[in-house]
């Protein structure tokens, strides 16, 4: 009997050893080939993902990039991220190469966690679904359409500040900024503006946003598991809205052009097929995330920097009060007012340089190609980093200094300032984000000055930069 148990133990040890060897061999084989970029690949399966993510959790996402730029290559180095062999591209030359070769040498890539959180999109790839969305969005995000949104944004901002900020001595900025941008997205994308209805989505959306780009371990309590549950809940709620909209359109209670949801319901493909309700729910879900998450981070950091730099606050305040004084009582902001907010937008741009809401993005090599003397194999994942230029003194002297004048005149050199990406995949909501951020700034400084309650509050990046405690501030209303 002892021999039997000993044999079982030896068999188990042999199995584990062979499995580990197989993993190690497979991991090493992913990085074999001539002229690969320099770098290190970390451990099997894990690669350097923990170092990559933890540099953000510690508040310095650029450290992972700059440490390897210094050690291996200032433009491209190899690594292993999210279980994939990868090359990290750094600097404006690399940005230009990736952005200008979209759908030629490279294509967008999303981690497997994204497909699992958005299951209906697995009928076709996330990339194909993204392309379909980009064809739909221009009608709603072109300047003529955006001009119609300004009054709506102004009205919702007024209601938001009246309900969440006015008559408060202290507030926590990040959750309030998320409430503002989410309210706008719900109103403009699906015509939902009842605050109580919107509030039912708030916590699930927080769980979803935190877990989309995470290690895809579907066990109770993990961020990924919470994201899947949140996604299922939100999707069911959206299907209810979609079903009601169908009825409203049929009865003439809704219009075909009132928002993106109506457009999706009434648009068919080249084969005359209309989108299924779950597909529409998935696309609306993605839009609601993209339409509020990054802008809420930008708004939060604007509050942070205006609190820290009084002269910048005064510049924004003077510009916005000049606009406010030109308006009649009850008159809403318009396109001309937005165009006058030049200094305020320079400030917002400098905020997004120092704390880019989009830290970078992944691509996948469609074929073998060479770049800067190195070979990039087909199937490798490619990551571009905003911080590789935003915080690089070669492109922005004294990169840690807050200086809105960097954006005066012709502004930064091409491909150095990339908070919205670039090329065909540049964020289609860039102008939409500009409007919601400027309207937020207008209402904020018109009402208050403020002090940070935690002077040295830590910043964490997960996956966007956010103050660790949400940026609590003490408000000082302006005297009427």
From TrEMBL:
Keywords: Heme, Iron, Membrane, Metal-binding, Monooxygenase, Oxidoreductase, Transmembrane, Transmembrane helix. It holds the Pfam family p450. GO terms for biological process: sterol metabolic process. Gene3D superfamilies: Cytochrome P450. It is found in: Membrane. The keyword Protein biosynthesis does not apply. Its main location: membrane. Heme binds at residue 427. One of its GO terms (molecular function) is iron ion binding. Signal peptide: none annotated. GO terms for cellular component: membrane. It comes from Carya illinoinensis. It is a single-pass membrane protein. The chain crosses the membrane at residues 6-25. Belongs to the cytochrome P450 family. Its cofactor is heme. This is Cytochrome P450.
């Amino acid at each position: 009997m002892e021999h039997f148990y000993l044999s079982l133990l030896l068999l188990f040890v042999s199995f584990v050893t062979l499995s580990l060897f197989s993993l190690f061999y497979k991991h090493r084989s992913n990085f074999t080939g001539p002229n690969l970029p320099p770098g290190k690949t970390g451990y099997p399966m894990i690669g350097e993902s923990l170092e990559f993510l933890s540099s953000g959790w510690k508040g310095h996402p650029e450290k992972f990039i700059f440490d390897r730029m210094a050690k291996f290559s200032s433009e491209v180095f190899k690594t292993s991220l999210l279980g994939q062999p990868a090359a990290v591209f750094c600097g404006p030359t690399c940005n230009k190469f990736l952005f200008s070769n979209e759908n030629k040498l490279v294509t967008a890539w999303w981690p497997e966690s994204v497909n699992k959180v958005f299951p209906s999109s697995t009928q076709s790839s996330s990339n194909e679904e993204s392309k379909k969305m980009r064809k739909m969005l221009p009608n709603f995000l072109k300047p003529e359409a955006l001009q119609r949104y300004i009054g709506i944004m102004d009205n919702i901002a007024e209601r938001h500040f009246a309900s969440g900020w006015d008559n408060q001595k202290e507030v926590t900025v990040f959750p309030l900024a998320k409430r503002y941008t989410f309210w706008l997205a719900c109103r403009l994308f699906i015509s939902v503006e009842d605050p109580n209805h919107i509030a039912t989505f708030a916590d699930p959306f927080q769980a979803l946003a935190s877990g989309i780009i995470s290690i895809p371990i579907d066990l109770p309590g993990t961020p990924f598991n919470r994201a899947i549950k949140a996604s299922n809940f939100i999707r069911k709620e959206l299907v209810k809205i979609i079903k009601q909209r169908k009825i409203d359109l049929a009865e003439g209670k809704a219009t075909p052009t009132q928002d993106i949801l109506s457009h999706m319901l009434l648009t068919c493909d080249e084969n005359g097929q209309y989108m299924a309700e779950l597909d529409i729910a998935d696309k609306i879900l993605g839009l609601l995330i993209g339409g509020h998450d990054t802008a809420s981070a930008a708004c939060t950091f604007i509050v942070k920097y205006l609190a820290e730099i009084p002269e910048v606050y005064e510049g924004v305040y003077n510009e916005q009060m000049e606009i406010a004084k030109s308006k009649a009582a009850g008159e809403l902001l318009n396109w001309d007012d937005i165009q006058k907010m030049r200094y305020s937008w320079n400030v917002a741009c400098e905020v997004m340089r120092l704390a880019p809401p989009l830290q970078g993005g992944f691509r996948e090599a469609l074929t073998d190609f060479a770049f800067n003397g190195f070979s990039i194999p087909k199937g490798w994942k490619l990551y571009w980093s905003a911080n590789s230029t935003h915080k690089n003194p070669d492109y922005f002297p004294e990169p840690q200094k807050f200086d809105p004048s960097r954006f005066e005149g012709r502004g930064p050199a091409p491909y150095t300032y990339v908070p919205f990406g670039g090329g065909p995949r540049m964020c289609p909501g860039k102008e939409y984000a500009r409007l919601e951020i400027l309207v937020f700034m207008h209402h904020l400084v018109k009402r208050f000055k403020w002090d940070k309650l935690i002077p040295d509050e830590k910043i964490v990046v997960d996956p966007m930069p956010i103050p660790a405690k949400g940026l609590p501030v003490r408000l000082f209303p302006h005297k009427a």
